[in-house]
Specification:
With 117 residues, the chain is mainly α. The chain has five helices and no strands. The chain is globular.
């Protein structure tokens, strides 16, 4: 197993652990929830950087008939998950930063896409 694969596996395990802890924001405390959300965002960026060759390669030939359906579905699901997690992260920041009259809107976005993810 290459070092790159070991890093990918370790990163995936960390992301899974963090993702599981997000569903109970009082699991540790709210500060942990917010800090781990930021760490999770960084992990996603690292994950995408490590897999950038695959992302670029599939993006270029997504509609090519030679690409297997399984790979196309994986790409589309990954893309939708990226959008969903991006909305979770952005809405998390806005829950903290938004004026009181807009917090409920951002909480609704945050919770909805959390459950979708």
């Amino acid at each position: 197993m290459t070092n790159k694969n070991k890093i990918k596996i370790a990163l995936d395990i960390c992301m899974i652990f963090l993702f599981i802890t997000f569903f109970d924001k009082n699991f540790v405390n709210m500060k942990f929830h917010m800090l781990s959300g930021i760490i999770f965002a960084v992990f996603i960026l690292i994950h995408m950087f490590i897999n950038r060759k695959w992302i670029i390669s599939i993006s270029k030939k997504l509609f090519d008939k030679k690409i297997k359906l399984r790979i196309k579905i994986s790409y589309i699901v990954s893309f939708l998950l990226l959008i969903s997690v991006g909305l979770i992260i952005v809405s998390g920041f806005y829950i903290i930063l938004a004026p009181v009259n807009r917090k409920m809107f951002w909480k609704m976005i945050h919770y909805t896409f959390s459950y979708i993810s």
